[in-house]
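B., you asked whether I could sanity-check this one before it goes into the benchmark set. Here's the sequence:
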Amino acid sequence: MEKKRLIIGNLVRDIQAGLRDIEIRYNQAFDGVKDTVYSGTDLKDFDFYFDYVVGECEKLKPLWEE
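And here's what the prediction gave me:
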């Protein structure tokens, strides 16, 4: 179990280190997503959804931190 926590923790740290690159890449692709959403849908900007996902991932920290 400890080995799994270490692996998950390392993966998350790597993701956090590259978070800015991930944000830039997906932000650029967000226009394509907007084009597929029904008109009249209350679509937020990219940062709203990105910050939400990052926040949800933060809640998982106790799984790899002691």
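One thing to flag: The mean pLDDT is 79. Otherwise nothing jumped out at me.
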